[in-house]
Design brief:
The structure is a single chain. By secondary structure, the chain is of the alpha/beta class. It folds into 2 domains: 135 residues, Periplasmic binding protein-like II (D-Maltodextrin-Binding Protein, domain 2), CATH 3.40.190; 111 residues, D-Maltodextrin-Binding Protein, domain 2 (3-Layer(aba) Sandwich). The protein has 13 helices and 10 strands. A 5-stranded mixed β-sheet has the order 2-1-3-10-4, sandwiched between helices. Strand 1, helix 2 and strand 2 form a beta-alpha-beta unit. It is globular. It starts with a helix and ends in a 10-residue tail after the last helix.
Length: 261
């Protein structure tokens, strides 16, 4: 009886140990930088979560080339679908993509910019962008960043994409693109709302939210790549979908869709 109790306790502690000694490596689109960092801090095992941020396209390339990530948060459903299809064909234990939010794009201009007063008064996006006082515009690289695709769609809707081409300064990711605006390297940026909703950034500039009618939905999705840490992964996913975490996403401007995949 004593031996059985010892064996049971040994198995129990091994089970608990398997939950708390593993780590989770996450690659996330950089539009999630501030929201996901905050969600991480509210997780009881946040010291076991390691997050790398960058463009969705770069993350996709790294993972299909063997980078050891356990989760992939994409700013675009397309990249999440591609990851699933490729890994599934390779017999990797990967979850189907899960849509969890939609992103929004904005025009962002620093408060100390000479054009600031006019920017605040005008509601016509086209006249703002083609103004002679706007010489450089930061947008994300459409080849890797979904927000770059949305920016191009928006400008094409206004029929000014080709007209403005010479003004573009291209960022590798949406957070890199934001850096150009914040350092004053450009006059204005087409950025993710979730980036500029960071308090330290928001207080530095003015925001004009671009209506969703100007671009396709920026559907945020994740896939889970199950290895030997599925217990911790499932626990973190449960936390990510908690009411507290969902509210954090909303605080950063993400819209939580009612539909599910």
């Amino acid at each position: 009886m004593f031996r059985k109790s010892v064996n049971f306790l040994t198995l129990f502690f091994l089970f608990v140990n398997s939950i708390f000694t593993n780590i989770i490596r996450i690659y996330a689109a950089s539009d999630l930088r501030y929201a996901l960092d905050e969600i991480k801090t509210t997780y009881q095992n946040n010291d076991k979560i390691y997050i790398t941020y960058g463009s969705s396209g770069k993350g996709f390339q790294q993972i299909i080339n063997g980078a050891p990530y356990d989760m992939f948060f994409s700013a675009n459903l397309i990249y999440a679908n591609k990851i699933y299809e490729i890994l599934h064909m390779q017999k990797v234990n990967v979850s189907k993509p899960k849509i969890f939010a939609e992103g929004r794009i904005v025009l962002f201009l620093l408060k100390n910019h000479p054009y600031a007063n006019e920017f605040l008064k005008k509601n016509d996006f086209k006249s703002i962008l083609i103004s002679k006082k706007i010489n450089k515009i930061a947008i994300a690289n459409e080849k890797f960043a979904p927000y770059g695709i949305a920016a191009k769609e928006f400008l094409n809707q206004l029929n000014i994409y080709n007209y403005l081409k010479n003004k573009f300064i291209i960022g590798e990711s949406i957070s890199h693109t934001a850096t150009y605006v914040l350092t004053g390297s450009v006059d204005l940026g087409i950025l993710a709302l979730s980036i500029v909703k960071n308090k330290q950034i928001e207080e530095k500039g003015y925001i004009k939210l671009i209506p969703k009618k100007y671009h396709n939905p920026i559907r945020q999705a994740y896939v889970v790549i199950f290895k030997n840490n599925s217990l911790l992964l499932n626990d973190f996913i449960k936390h990510f979908h908690s009411l507290k975490s969902q509210q954090i996403l909303k605080n950063y401007g993400f819209e939580i869709p009612k539909y599910q995949l």
